[in-house]
Amino acid sequence: MRTLADLGEFGLIERIRERAGSPSSRDVVLGIGDDAAILRPRAGEDSVVSTDACVEGVHFDWSIQSGRSIGRRALIANLSDLAAMGARPVGFTCALAAPPSLALRRFDAVLKGLLEEAQAWSCPLVGGNLTRASRLHMAITVFGAVPRGRALRRAGLAPGDRIFLTGHLGSSALDRLRAIKGGGSLRHIPVPRLEAGRALGRMKGRRACIDLSDGLGGDLGHLARASGVGVEVDPATLPRTRSFTEGCRRLGFDPLELAVSGGEDYELLFGLDSRLSAAALSRRLNALVTEIGVATRNPGVRGLPTESAWRHW
Amino acid sequence: MRTLADLGEFGLIERIRERAGSPSSRDVVLGIGDDAAILRPRAGEDSVVSTDACVEGVHFDWSIQSGRSIGRRALIANLSDLAAMGARPVGFTCALAAPPSLALRRFDAVLKGLLEEAQAWSCPLVGGNLTRASRLHMAITVFGAVPRGRALRRAGLAPGDRIFLTGHLGSSALDRLRAIKGGGSLRHIPVPRLEAGRALGRMKGRRACIDLSDGLGGDLGHLARASGVGVEVDPATLPRTRSFTEGCRRLGFDPLELAVSGGEDYELLFGLDSRLSAAALSRRLNALVTEIGVATRNPGVRGLPTESAWRHW
User: Fold this and answer.
1) Which residue of A has its CA nearest to B50?
2) By percentage, how much of chain B surpasses pLDDT 90?
3) Residue (of A300, A304, A163) closest to A221 by Cα position
């Protein structure tokens, strides 16, 4: 079995460079291979920057996940942050740390997943770093652009604003629990809501926005605290698919609890000061949009069975 | 002893946020605390982006290094990449992975070093990520800005160009060997050549540039290959201090070999198509500048005892 050590640092960099290709984007002047990448901002745009790490044994586990899925998800977590700001992707860097004994086959699969997802969203790999470590560790930094002063933020919700959510809740969490309990590997790959985020950013009356990475309970709390308001949710409205509900029952989980506390949904949670119906919003954002509650003067999140969020520590 | 686990993820984020403060830079619209940071590019500037990782047991070792020095060096490695592009710093993110059992005292010291160095170069912390890992791991991404189309690159050296170097060689390597052999801790902290890099970027006749992170031998090779030329060096000219030479003798190392193969110098190595003397260059770059060789048509690096570079793997 060939390992990373067989190729060495420079061999691997060359391999990554070949597979990544040269970015053909007008945003990227210089990609991989120099001391730094050069991006060319467009007039009238702000830059948006987010960093996320993906660590073996913490965020992923080879026993229930393919390398390709590990790579795709690592980038999706970052792209979702751009979506939550209403930004378009420009490029990303990856600081990759791995054991020299890692099978090249696994490395290639992770790289494939990363680059596939990058290509799907026109977000080229523009640089990175390779180092040795005892476990695989990817720190991804993603760059985006947004019309000047128009980024969606967590703060900005006002009492009376209606609270909405894209998509359905809990699919990632259920998929993970199914794989852990029943064996097999992860099947569900979330979609970063980049299109919906950009459309929302252009709308009148749009307020605060966050992506669901830690679970609805926790992320609603972040949104409310950043805005200095409270949120009241009607749990009956929370969007779940029938197959999610059935899957929960089969595995012995409470569907509502899992929908609220499960992480990695990567849906957008946002507030709106407008009379637009959820149906009209769904058309505008090109995604299912559900109204789930309202912002209130009293701090805190009410109406959820628990505010428990995914905790990394 | 208090550890990271006592504060938890959100407690630590709050601690970092308090200590980092709000960036007062006009480049930063939004710092820590949202899904992403917002930077505002200035008209007529390109963005420069570089990522470096700093891993416990690979890049640093608690037994010979203070937390403050670990933090400072982690950022310096990145700032040096900006210097090599002729860029000014704008801000940085840090994806920090650490064991929950890490002493809070150590964490605070690393953070102090990071933020001290950041403040010295007006490069505020604008975001990041915290996660659990078996060893301390920092992946830093640094953002800079450079006048449009004026970034210094590795490619661009032409036969006949004179090759120059800022500062002295080998101090970091000797300091590390001294600490490992003789006990005690690291004393030497390199200086990122940001001022020299920006001055060089403005000069007529400036060609390719790289910062010395892997050692002169390796980095000269990078520069020559990127430009498709060779380099001929006069080893007698390589700038070393008397105390470096004496230190090498005392510890039993060949001064020339250590100067060429030692890493973490963070000096700038660059080519120039101009008649400027090294003395005139020293004044312009506000740093000692030494002429060490010339670019040639024949590929390869000649005149050095070895082309061995620091290898991470």
Assistant:
1) A36
2) 90
3) A300
CATH of residue B224's domain is 3.90.650.10
Q: Which residue of A has its CA nearest to B147?
A: A40
CATH at A14? 3.30.1330.10
CA distance B290 to B273: 15
What's the gap in Å between the CA of A185 and the closest CA on chain B?
A: 23
B297, part of any domain: yes
B219 phi, psi to nearest 5 deg: -70, -35
Contacts of A241 (CB under 8 A, 6+ apart): A168, A171
- Domain tally, chain B: 2
pLDDT tens for each residue of A122-144: 999 999 999 999 999 999 999 99
In-domain check, residue B154: no
- At B276, the pLDDT band (50, 70, 90 cuts) reads very high
Q: Is residue B142 part of a domain?
A: yes
Question: pLDDT tens digits for B202-234?
Answer: 999 999 999 999 899 999 999 999 999 999 999
Q: Lowest-confidence range among A178-187, A217-226, B26-35, B77-86? A: A178-187
Alpha-carbon distances of A294 from A156, A213, B104, B307, rounded to whole Å: 14, 21, 40, 66
A281 and A169, same structural domain? Answer: yes
Asked if B33's CB is within 8 angstroms of A46's CB, the reply is no
Domain that holds residue B222: 162-302
| Option in B34, B55, B211 nearest A131 (CB) | B55
Q: Is the pLDDT of residue B307 over 60?
A: no
Tell me if B8 is assigned to some domain.
yes
